[in-house]
Amino acid sequence: MKKAEVKKGEKTDKQEGKENKKGRGKKIGIILGVVLGVLIMVGGGYMVLKREIVETEELVVVQEGKEFSRVFTEYIQGRLEATELFQEEFRKLEDEEIVEKLAELKDTFSGVAKEVATKYQGTEFEEMAEIMKNDTTVYLKEVRELRQVLTGSGVSADKQVELLKITQENEELLRSAVYLAESAFPEGASGLGGKGVMIVQGEMLTEVGGGVMNVFVGNTEKKVVAVSTDDYSETVKTIRAEKALVFSGGGVRKIGEGVKNELVTGKLKVVTVQEMSGGEAKLEKRLISLLGETTWSLAPKLEARGIMGLTE
Fold first, then answer.
1. Strand 267-275 and strand 197-201: pairing?
2. How far is CA 165 from CA 87, 116, 140, 168, 277, in A?
3. Is 168 exposed, middle or buried (0-12, 13-18, 19+ CB in 10 A)?
4. Residues 177, 128, 270, CA angle at the centre, nearest 5°?
5. Nearest CA among 292, 215, 291, 278 for reference residue 246
6. What global pTM score does this model have?
7. Tens digit of pLDDT per residue, the chain (312 long)?
8. How far is CA 186 from the centre of its chain?
9. Beta strands at 204-209 and 212-217: parallel, antiparallel or unpaired
10. CB pairs under 8 A, 24+ apart, for 285-288?
């Protein structure tokens, strides 16, 4: 029997099988390598996105800060009491009781108006004082008109309608807005990765610019103010803010150019101010990823670190 001859350049079936296996092995190896590389890149990218970032800044004392903080707190307390009276208590109280509360508001806003008349010209708080002066004038006018409806002759047949009309007309003349900001979200909110949140250690947070002002009143007991991008898409008016200030412990500190400007999509920014000797302070901004988080998953982690305010 003759042996099968193999010409130069030709391959046996056995050799071809071996080489095909080698080729398939190389392809599988390349594919696995690519997949592994992608996984490493994705995992690495995820870790970078989840990495916590800390920014610190030294702050110097703001002149007239404590004095202005006192006046501003009185002003906001008056605003909150006026809102409660005009929106709720009008329907529950007797005329005489409403008149008494209007007298208290008159005293509060008169006191604030005197404080901000000229004292803060040329200071860090000049623009805010001008806004407060405008708004206290509006409230004093409103108090006077409401009192006339309740005590004067020619009283409207429907006092509620008359009172509501007066408050609405005067509301349009205000150059500042006050919002309650004790928490960022209702419990159970999801999709946090597409939102931005800022939780600030303090009682109040303001942003001012262009002659108008937003004021966020937080949980004064826990000293937490929380604002989110949802607030700006739903209730808070966007302004051309030039500074953001936090009121805490009887003082006031500048923390940025504007509250909305400080919000970062996909991040929770935790802002704390550590008071130091000589009126100086240390500002810390801690960025925590919201990627893949819900309030259910994130709130316990934050609370374990003493960070409150994510949910109600």
1. parallel
2. 12, 28, 16, 5, 51
3. exposed
4. 70
5. 215
6. 0.82
7. 333 333 334 445 555 555 555 555 555 655 655 555 554 444 443 343 457 888 888 776 677 889 999 999 999 999 999 999 998 888 888 889 999 999 999 999 999 999 999 899 999 999 999 999 999 999 999 999 999 988 876 545 577 788 889 999 999 999 999 999 999 999 888 899 999 999 999 999 999 999 999 999 999 999 999 999 999 999 999 999 999 999 988 889 999 999 999 999 999 999 998 877 777 788 999 999 999 999 999 999 999 999 999 998
8. 14
9. antiparallel
10. 285/54, 285/55, 285/56, 285/57, 285/255, 286/52, 286/53, 286/54, 286/55, 287/52, 287/53, 287/54, 287/55, 288/52
- Nearest CA-CA partner of 72 in 100, 33, 17, 112: 112
| 3-state DSSP assignment of residue 305 | coil
Cβ atoms of 148 and 155 within 8 Å: the answer is no
Query: Which residues pair with residue 205 across a beta bridge?
Result: 216, 246
Query: Are the C-beta atoms of 218 and 137 separated by less than 8 Å?
Result: no
Q: Which two tokens stand for residue 146?
A: 């409401």
Residue written as tokens 């099968």? Answer: 4
The helix/strand/coil state of 222 is coil
